[in-house]
Amino acid sequence: MGMASLHCCIALVLILACGYANAQDSTTLVSAIITFGDSVADVGNNDYLYTIFKANYPPYGRDFAGKKATGRFCNGKLATDITAETLGFKSYAPPYLSGPSGKDLLLGANFASAGSGYDDKTAYLSHAISLTQQVEYFKEYKGKLAKAAGSSSKADDIIKGALFLVSFGPSDFIQNYYVNPYVNKVYTVDQYSTMLVKIMSDFIKNLYSLGATRIGVTSLPPLGCLPAARTLFGNHQSGCVQRINQDAQNFNKKANAAAGSLLKQLSGLKLVVFDIYKPLNDLIQSPSQFGFTEASKGCCGTGTVETTVFLCNPHSIGTCSNASAYVFWDAVHPSEAANQVLADALILQGFALL
């Protein structure tokens, strides 16, 4: 599908959805957006933590509004930002650790933290906000939301109409399992992915018990194609690391099976596992078809591994001039241009949540 027809299709989806949306604000298709996850969705929570995983310095954010580094691990907008705009939001839910109050709380909340994972031990390794702690923050947020909305019943309505986005998994494998003998000597990769999917399933049940009814969970991307993974685990061979991609696909199959089971168990739940594996893999395998020229390394620094292994740094040498030509911004994270493609896929796949 060409980009023009894709955007026409998205517009049609949104026009249809407008008739069914039970939005708090008539200009938005959901009442709020509440996000849990890792660096793909972190909008600045790690700015407030003692961790090496930060993106609050140039060249991060150079193509964002005001050319400001906000803590997003990208040159510009995240896929979740673009999704929020497509759903009618004029501004984004702020990072929860920034202490939002009043009307800001009505937009939703973002608890995502770079370096976090389904496995709380993954977060502990990088001093990120663990999944367990993100849930505790959500409970705290619900109390604040009741005050901002004027009553607990109004807050409950906002939660019921909110879109919950969940994005974990890559850090569990790339920053934990593959490099941590305390994990990979105890579990086979199959056992570890089964454990992660069980945590995911329990997490969704927990969100449901707290009032969530519309939940979108991202699949794993082609982990073996991330520039950092190619460099660290590719044994100097060209192309993606196929065994790691296979692990990601096996995880995704289990996640889809778990989602199917949850839909049968939990009445009124709307749940979608967003396939981001295929759209990102398509970009990487055939970049020129989508207007990209570079898919094997990131735009900033060397684009392979940097001083913190994964991230750009303020002194990154050789950062490219046109990030939109690159699928990856740094050694792990997509560019804004790639995030646009992923966001288009999220919207099309997420029609069932609206």
Characteristic key phrases:
354 residues, alpha/beta, Rossmann fold, 5-stranded parallel sheet, two-stranded parallel ribbon, 7 strands, globular, GDSL esterase/lipase APG, GDSL, GDSL_lipolytic_enzyme, signal, hydrolase activity, acting on ester bonds
Low-confidence stretches: 8-25
Q: In whole angstroms, how far apart are the ends? A: 23 Å
| Mean pLDDT metric | 91
CATH superfamily: SGNH hydrolase
Helix content: 40-55%
CATH topology annotation: Rossmann fold
Output the radius of gyration: 19 Å
H and E order: HEHHEHHHEHHHEHHEHEEH
- How many helical stretches? 13
Q: Tell me the β content.
A: 5-15%
Provide the domain count.
1
The oligomerization state is single chain
What structural category do the secondary elements indicate? alpha/beta
For the secondary structure, the number of strands is: 7
Rough outline: globular
Q: What's the arrangement of strands in the largest beta sheet?
A: 2-1-3-4-5
Q: What is the CATH architecture descriptor?
A: 3-Layer(aba) Sandwich
Biggest sheet features: 5 strands, parallel
